[in-house]
Design a protein that fits this description.
The protein is an alpha+beta fold and 224 residues long. The chain has one domain. Helix content is 20%, strand content 25%. It is built from 3 helices and 8 strands. The strands form 2 sheets. A 5-stranded antiparallel β-sheet has the order 3-2-5-6-8. Strands 4-1-7 form a 3-stranded mixed β-sheet, with no helix packed on it. The longest helix has 23 residues, at 201-223. It is globular. The N and C termini lie far apart (87 Å).
Length: 224
């Protein structure tokens, strides 16, 4: 009898810890390159890459780095290509994901209430992303997130878990020059951030040498 009760308790705990899938509608435009030109739509993965990312705890979105689309505690929770819905440079799609299981060993987990953002890369296609392409030094990208209620949407935060049903939540971002117009300035849709280059080892060596020389000169001047 004890074994049966223990089994039932374990099953109950597992069911309680389970997370349901969440469905998010994403409607945004106009997403542009660093010059303000609407980025590439396409089919069969040929459209420019758009990511849905989440901040898992610090409520900040860190920069993309050489070889990584996110940094810090940010994670990618959805990946899409620019599509033709709504016009060039606009995306209308759905992201579906599940939250981290309750009881995870990780100290920082993706869950309801975490901030969400979209991040787009004009020069990287969805197919390239799927093939393992990573950001390179000099690549431009854009990031948008809002805790307000832009363009009739709601706060860009992960919604409450849907239990046994998916939760549908719209994330909207429209610039004033998008189809139908919006409330955001066109520059918010520009890919205005550049992936920083990683300094060469020789650069670090020269920097260390410079710091050392500066310290030596400071000590010499102090003695004088």
């Amino acid at each position: 009898m004890k074994k049966i009760l223990l089994s039932l308790f374990s099953t109950l705990v597992l069911c309680t810890a389970a997370k349901a899938s969440v469905s998010l509608g994403i409607d945004a435009g106009i997403l542009a390159d660093s010059s303000g030109n609407a980025i590439t739509n396409g089919s069969n993965g040929s459209g420019s890459l758009v990511l849905l990312i989440a901040s898992q705890g610090d409520s900040l979105f860190q920069a993309a780095t050489v070889g990584s689309y996110t940094s810090g505690d940010d994670i990618v929770v959805g990946a899409f290509q620019m599509n033709y819905f709504g016009g060039t440079g606009e995306i209308n799609t759905t992201a579906t994901f599940s939250y981290t299981t309750v009881g995870s060993a990780s100290s920082s987990t993706f869950d309801a209430g975490d901030l969400l953002a979209i991040r787009w890369f004009p020069n990287i296609t969805f197919s390239q992303f799927q093939g393992g392409t990573k950001p390179a030094a000099g690549d431009f990208y854009g990031t948008y997130s809002s805790v307000g209620t832009p363009d009739g949407g709601i706060a860009w935060t992960a919604p409450a878990d849907g239990a046994s049903l998916a939760v549908t939540q719209g994330l909207n971002f429209y610039t004033t020059n998008s189809g139908g117009g919006g409330s955001q300035t066109p520059s918010k849709g520009y890919a205005s951030t550049q992936v920083a280059a990683v300094p060469e080892p020789s650069t670090f060596a020269l920097l260390g040498l410079g710091v050392g020389v500066a310290g030596w000169m400071a000590r010499r001047n102090k003695k004088a």
